[in-house]
Specification:
The chain is of the alpha/beta class. It has three domains: 69 residues; 211 residues, P-loop containing nucleotide triphosphate hydrolases (Rossmann fold); 92 residues, GMP Synthetase, Chain A, domain 3 (2-Layer Sandwich), CATH 3.30.300.20. Helices cover 42% and strands 17% of the residues. It has 16 helices and ten strands. Strands 1, 2, 3, 4, 5, 6 and 7 form a seven-stranded mixed sheet that branches. Helix 4 packs across helix 5, helix 6 packs across helix 7 and helix 13 packs across helix 16. The longest helix is centred in the last third of the chain and has 18 residues. It is globular. The chain starts with a helix and ends with a strand. This is GTP-binding ERG. Keywords: GTP-binding, Nucleotide-binding, RNA-binding. Belongs to the TRAFAC class TrmE-Era-EngA-EngB-Septin-like GTPase superfamily. Era GTPase family.
């Protein structure tokens, strides 16, 4: 039986409307689900729904059951071919919906506008940038398998009707005992300075990794988060409310997904959370519910960006971010961190295309040779990948020309 803390923490948003007509609480429903044998969850829920419908006339529909199972990540067919896990990415599917919704909010007067500023925090490689990019619907921050890819807070937003949600993607935050150098310390403090001024915090945790090998940095982060965010804040400052987001549930083996609730229970004992979401930012699982939750929390306030804007970054900054991401994905070890990028030009062409010229400055001859690659293959692959992504984002042909130089 889960402890009372988990009852308070676990939102199980799909549980609430589904189980209420059945006469049981979310905590009772989640505990009951744990007793059902593997692979029989959906059948058991359907049977319970049918029994309750017969007894009370309430409707425990298949769609509702599927929604609840999806929220727990225990659906029997969620990994089957043709589902979002084998097809379209979150940025592609949810992204178009987010951008299209902005078009309906163009003429909202300032007096009717609502705004939520939400800070996305977590240890390195929790999937923060992937989540922000997916919720916003376009590339806001570079994403790679390397730690500390995000060097400074990035801002992304989505707008639906009268509500705008501004997401602040922050560098990975850790306790001071994990600082690697003064620059790392400045990045972490800068992340907390941004997050502490938001109206809501999203604490992102890699659930798959945490179930396999608990990360002591997460324990310290959650326990000390209020004190860390308080640094530099005015007297009387109170920490923003927080939501726990367990990410990468698609990477949790189906037989181990029951452990997600005890994990939420353990993390919820370290600091108060108002809600919990199970998501796969990479594949879009759980994101519609999270997006709607954020929109619902927007309070009266003028928007930060125009309705159609997904980020406050200029096209030049976007180009640099994309090229930087491709370098991180292509190069190994510490080399990408040592490279400096300089925008030479970003100009529209007569044929409606855009030509972007960027200098990649390597620290020495050896590094330059690696970036260029045999016969220029590496730098060409980076440029091609940047071409493709920028063309998709800007919706016009883009040609990226990279010049690799050695620092002097």
């Amino acid at each position: 039986m889960l402890r009372q803390r988990c009852t308070q923490l676990v939102s199980l948003r799909a549980f609430r409307p589904l189980l209420a007509p059945w006469g049981c609480s979310a905590s009772e429903g989640s505990a009951w689900l744990h007793t059902v044998p593997d692979g029989q969850e959906e059948a058991a829920l359907q049977a319970a729904a049918a029994a309750q419908a017969a007894a009370t006339g309430s409707d425990g529909s298949s769609a509702d059951v599927a929604a609840m199972l999806a929220s727990l990540g225990v659906s029997g067919d969620d990994d089957a071919p043709g589902t979002p896990f084998g097809s379209e990415t979150a940025t592609g599917a949810a992204g178009r919906a987010a951008l299209a919704a902005g078009a309906t909010a163009e003429a909202v007067p300032a007096s009717q506008q609502r705004l939520l500023q939400a800070g996305v925090v977590g240890v390195p490689n929790a999937g923060k940038s992937t989540l922000v990019n997916a919720l916003v619907g376009t590339k806001v921050s570079a994403v790679s398998h390397k730690t500390n890819t995000t060097e400074a807070p990035r801002l992304g937003a989505f707008t639906v009707d009268t509500a705008q949600v501004v997401l602040h993607d922050t560098p990975g935050v850790v306790g001071k005992e994990h600082y690697k150098n003064p620059n790392h310390q400045r990045r972490v403090r800068g992340a907390w300075a941004v997050a502490g001024n938001c109206g809501l915090l999203l604490f992102l945790v890699d659930a798959a990794r945490e179930l396999q090998r608990p990360d002591p940095r997460i324990t310290r982060l959650l326990a000390d988060s209020a004190a860390a965010a308080r640094v530099g804040m005015p007297e009387g400052w109170q920490p923003p409310p927080a939501v726990l987001v367990l990410n990468k549930i698609d990477a949790v083996p189906r037989g181990e997904r029951r452990a997600l609730l005890p994990l939420a229970d353990r993390l919820g004992g370290l600091r108060p959370f108002e809600d919990l979401f199970f998501v796969s930012a990479k594949h879009g699982k759980g994101l519609p519910e999270l997006r709607q939750y954020l929109l619902d929390r927007a309070a009266p306030g003028e928007w930060t960006l125009e309705a159609r804007q997904a980020t406050d970054r200029s096209v030049e900054e976007q180009a640099l971010e994309i090229v930087r991401e491709k370098l991180f994905l292509r190069l190994h070890q510490e080399l990408p961190y040592a490279l400096r990028l300089r925008l030479v030009s970003c100009l529209p062409q007569p044929d409606n295309s855009v030509r972007v010229e960027i200098e990649v400055v390597a620290p020495n001859t050896s590094a330059k040779r690696i970036v260029v690659g045999a016969g220029g293959a590496t730098v060409a692959a980076v440029a091609d990948a940047a071409d493709a992504e920028l063309s998709a984002i800007w919706r016009r042909p883009v040609h990226v020309a990279l010049q690799v130089k050695e620092a002097r």
